[in-house]
Amino acid sequence: MHHHSPHCCVPTSHHSSPHCHSTGYRSMAPMGYPVLMPMPYYPSVGYAGYGWGGQATHSMPLPQEVSVDSATGMKEVFIGGTTKASLTLEYAPDGGATSPLVKVTVEIDGSISTWQETSMTDGYHVKSQLLSIEPGAKVTLEVKEAMARLRWCETICC
After folding, report:
1. Which residues contact 71 (CB under 8 A, 6 or more apart)?
2. Which of 3, 124, 128, 148 is the most buried (most CB within 10 A)?
3. Minimal CA–CA distance to 68: which of 96, 43, 100?
4. What is the largest CA-CA distance in the chain?
5. Phi, psi of 153 (to 5 degrees)
6. Is the CB of residue 108 less than 8 Å from the CB of residue 133?
């Protein structure tokens, strides 16, 4: 799924492409005389469109992940990008675990929220769209007697 950010680009409305275009003006007068002419619009189809020096601007999701296991214990990451990120958590208890723990803590603007699992069955577990996180959040993934991976996409402009 593609997300567009108003901070990045202007979505085109006449086609369903996830790409965006930019408009602007460029001086066409020789020797520094400022005569402004509108730049033509070139729709992009899977690549950046170029026209009179203008380059299309695109929203692009970049997959991110962090993994921890019993040896690592805990890792902290920063959520970036221009739009909210949806976290997906994958985890499994270690073989023979007696009290496994998987914990996700989110801190943003001084507010802290936590999700944890302590009574998991053996095998692989996945929680899609566990949390929706604003850019700038600090996320901590912690495990005991388990392994876990947190995945999300950060949308950037390029």
Report:
1. none
2. 148
3. 100
4. 78
5. -120, 135
6. yes
Return d(Cα 112, Cα 4) in angstroms, integer. 27
> What is the amino acid identity at position 77?
V
In sign, the C-alpha dihedral spanning 127, 132, 134, 138 is negative
Question: Tokens in use for 138?
Answer: 């600090």
Distance linking the first and last C-alpha atoms of the chain: 17
The residues facing 75 across adjacent strands are 141
- From first to last of its 158 residues, the chain has per-residue pLDDT tens of 434 344 454 443 333 333 333 333 333 344 444 444 444 444 444 444 444 455 557 889 999 999 999 999 999 999 999 999 999 999 999 999 999 999 999 999 999 999 999 999 999 999 999 999 999 999 999 999 999 999 999 999 88
Torsional sign, CA 84, 102, 150, 75 = positive
CA distances from 93 to 34, 40, 124, 129 (A): 67, 58, 8, 20
The CA–CA distances, whole Å, from 61 to 32, 46, 88, 100, 132 equal 40, 14, 15, 33, 15
